[in-house]
Design brief:
single chain; 375 residues; mainly beta; 4-stranded antiparallel sheet; 2 helices; 21 strands
Length: 375
């Protein structure tokens, strides 16, 4: 038998240590995850994936909420004044990009895109068990602001102010395009937001983070006290269309690269969001990139969108929809500045589209599986 030299044994031990350190810690036994989903065409409604480890996903069969609200008639284009039919789904209601969050009372709140073009609001419904849902409503957040769409609303619960923050993307006036906007060939968007405590009254829509170019699909997460990460899609096409991160000490911004500080004039005086009424945090400083600095390195291949993230033991896993060709992707990160693709560690059904992840108990998951098998 050939003897291993000390150097080879050392290399083997180093390799084993690296492999153990790169493994995500196991998920607690009573924990499971639900991944909201839709399928093309997006006229069927809400669908679910489920997972016990946050990495390997299976489909929960069935449609859990069929779209009943949204525009399925012609609309007046905000820029041309001409009557238009909703794009792609002119006579049908749709449910795209379903985002879910669980409130402190255990209620699940869901928001979604109600139409590709021709809508100025997002859909909303709530549930206690992810099976039975409230009556659907459209929240017309852009009713008084010229635009043609409200895309990919994303929910975030602000524990400090005890309110929900909803971020979405809407078209901006072509007359206001920046030089960076003109690098793409499609219409340009910016992120907007509103807040609510009860999903009955909402603060007026305001601009959110604005990098100075076409951007959509803002997903907000909290790493710790005064430590927030916003994942955004650069939506300029062709040549861009990938994801990046920016950072802030408030969910309302301003956001900036974590490895670079804000300029000295970014004080409370130039940032009214720091002194606004806490029940309605305004954020006018985010109508432009206050630091005028580049965001994090991009990740995900070209034509990636719809990010969401999950904390698994000792690392963050960012999932995203790679839509040319259709394949779900994921990266692992600890600092949101370096990203490791992990296609070999995940499995996601091929037809899954843009959603978000919520943690549930195994008992709740068992109830969903039982209901799916009986209906």
């Amino acid at each position: 038998m050939k003897k291993h030299t000390p150097s080879l044994l050392l290399l083997a031990l180093i390799g084993l240590t690296f492999a153990l350190n790169s493994c995500t810690k196991p998920v607690p036994e009573d924990t499971a995850y639900i991944f909201t989903s839709f399928r093309e065409p997006s006229t069927r409604g809400l669908q679910y994936l489920y997972s016990l480890d946050g990495l390997h996903w299976d489909t929960l069969p069935g449609v859990w909420l069929a779209p009943m609200v949204g525009n399925d008639t012609t609309y007046i284009d905000a820029w041309t004044g001409q009557e238009q039919a909703p794009k792609y789904y002119p006579d049908e209601r749709v449910m795209r990009d379903p985002s879910i969050v669980r409130g402190p009372d255990g209620t699940f709140h869901l928001v979604w895109t109600t139409q590709w073009m021709g809508s100025r609001g997002f859909g909303y419904a709530s549930s206690r068990d992810l099976i039975h849902w409230s009556e659907q409503r459209v929240i017309d957040v852009m009713a008084d602001i010229p635009t043609n769409n409200v895309w990919a609303p994303e929910l975030f619960y602000d524990e400090e102010l005890r309110q929900y923050l909803i971020i979405w993307s809407s078209q901006i006036d072509p007359l206001t395009y920046t030089a960076a906007d003109t690098l793409g060939t499609n219409s340009c968007h910016r992120l907007w937001y509103t807040t609510t405590r009860d999903f009955l009254t909402f603060t007026p829509a305001q601009r959110y983070y604005d990098p100075g170019f076409n951007s959509i699909d803002g997903y907000l997460l909290q790493r710790g006290p005064k430590d927030y990460v916003l994942v955004v899609k650069d939506n300029r096409k062709p040549g861009f269309s990938n994801l990046f991160c920016v950072f802030g000490d408030s969910p309302y911004g301003p956001f900036h690269p974590s490895n670079l500080s804000l300029p000295s004039d970014a004080t409370n005086e130039s940032n009214p969001s720091n002194s606004s009424n806490p029940s309605n945090p305004s954020n006018p400083s985010n109508s432009s990139n206050p630091s005028n600095l580049p965001p994090s390195p991009t990740f995900g291949r070209t034509y990636s969108e719809g990010p969401c993230a999950i904390w698994l033991g000792d690392e963050w896993i960012i999932y995203f929809d790679q839509y040319h060709p259709q394949e779900y992707g994921a990266v692992a990160t600890r600092d949101f500045l370096t990203f490791t693709p992990i296609p070999e560690r995940i499995s996601v059904p091929a037809d899954h589209k843009h959603g978000t992840i919520v943690e549930v108990s195994r008992k709740q998951l068992d109830a969903l599986i039982k209901y799916a098998n009986e209906h």
